[in-house]
Task: inverse folding
């Protein structure tokens, strides 16, 4: 969406605060021994306190409030009472919601407890690549050039990007134009970021795989070659200069 007036700006700020606080509080709350369903229920209560509704549930009838992906799951993991979190797990939490007709999206990967499997480098790479990408987004910049930057930074760290997942426009619904803000340079993509547009920018940084494939549950995605993936995401407003990070309250840019 394009921010057209003060009402739009305030609406986006409120829903972004809801998803950002839910993500931050879930990251603070999670610990070994709890189930992903317990974590999801906690996030659902935070969103409900804001009066916000789960975006994946509203839009796709997703069987949960938030997407919680563990270990080799890349994204869209279904919260379950049977999935018990363990020390050292790689966890990704993706929180998106609707509030008063406005929608926002954010997410983060982290290591649960001690980094006993040495995956912190993957998480740090994803976070730093998102930060660099956002700092270079402004009105008129080619979307594909940001993708090239993200892939180049990943390659320098010996990592890969997932080519069939990407960021997207957001605001009046969960997914809007511009769709497919990819983590690599699509030479056929000549679109540019528009001033005052709202976009969800996200990384998909992988150890081995370059594509995500869906499991039989119809939701969860894993790598085509295995391995692990880290994702970080902010909803931003594009400006002529430094973007406005609407979901800054999630605290992932530590």
Result:
């Amino acid at each position: 969406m394009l921010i057209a007036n003060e009402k739009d700006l305030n609406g986006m700020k409120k829903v972004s605060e809801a998803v950002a606080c839910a993500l931050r509080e879930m990251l603070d709350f999670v610990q070994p021994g709890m189930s992903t369903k317990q974590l999801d229920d906690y996030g659902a209560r935070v969103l409900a306190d804001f009066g916000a509704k789960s975006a994946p549930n509203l839009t796709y009838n997703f069987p949960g409030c938030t997407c919680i992906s563990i270990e080799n799951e890349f994204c869209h993991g279904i919260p379950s009472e049977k999935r018990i979190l363990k020390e050292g797990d790689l966890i990704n939490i993706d929180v998106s919601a609707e509030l008063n007709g406005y929608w926002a999206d954010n997410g983060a990967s982290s290591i649960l407890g001690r980094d006993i499997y040495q995956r912190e480098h993957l998480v740090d790479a994803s976070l730093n690549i998102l930060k660099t990408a956002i700092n270079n987004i402004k009105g008129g910049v080619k979307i594909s050039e940001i993708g090239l930057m993200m892939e180049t930074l990943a390659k320098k760290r010996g990592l890969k990007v997932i080519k069939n997942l990407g960021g997207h426009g957001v605001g009046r619904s969960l997914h809007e134009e511009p769709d497919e803000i990819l983590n690599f340079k699509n030479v056929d993509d000549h679109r540019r970021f528009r001033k005052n547009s709202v976009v969800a920018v996200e990384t998909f940084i992988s150890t081995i795989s370059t594509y995500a494939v869906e499991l039989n549950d119809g939701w969860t995605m894993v790598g085509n070659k295995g391995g692990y993936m880290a994702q970080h995401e902010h909803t931003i407003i594009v400006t002529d200069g430094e973007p406005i990070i609407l979901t800054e309250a999630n605290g992932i840019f530590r």
Observations:
- The longest strand covers residues 90-99.
- The radius of gyration is 17 Å.
- The chain has five helices and 15 strands.
